[in-house]
Amino acid sequence: VLYRYREAGGRAEGLAGFLDSAAGGERPALDVLERVGIDIGGVLAAVCQAVGPGVIVLGGELAEAGPALLEPVERALRRQLMPMARPHVDVRRATLGETGSALGGIALVLHESPLLSHYPQPVSEENA
């Protein structure tokens, strides 16, 4: 991303500076995010065709660019998905920060483990 940005005339030193430039509306930064978003959307479309997820969560430092990245990702994804799959895939920005991956892994184990999948049990009036 930074390589593309610098090739386009951007001057920020690191990713934080790049994101600041994008937030400030700097054209080279926004153009790079558009192109990167299209690339990411294309890869995610291929993953969706193979795996069929209902939700895609984009996280990490680059996702801090918000709509400047997420909108091109979603446009490319929708354009490349089969029409019948389009309404079944939701793209979201991660909101849990650095702990999101760990929490997602824990949730997956709790959801998928045959030993833990029934916990917590719903409280019924009989058990209360």
Taking the alpha carbons of the first and last residues, their distance comes to 56 Å
Shape: globular
CATH secondary-structure class? Alpha Beta
Helix percent band = 40-55%
Key descriptive features of the protein:
128 residues; 2 strands; mainly alpha; single chain
Mind explaining what this structure looks like?
The chain is mainly alpha-helical. It has one domain: 2-Layer Sandwich (Nucleotidyltransferase, domain 5). Helix content is 52%, strand content 6%. The protein contains 5 helices and 2 strands. It has a two-stranded parallel sheet. α2 (15-23) crosses α3 (27-51) and α3 (27-51) packs across α4. The longest helix has 25 residues, at 27-51. The protein is globular, with a radius of gyration of 19 Å.
Summarize the entry for a quick read:
The longest helix has 25 residues. By secondary structure, this protein is mainly α.
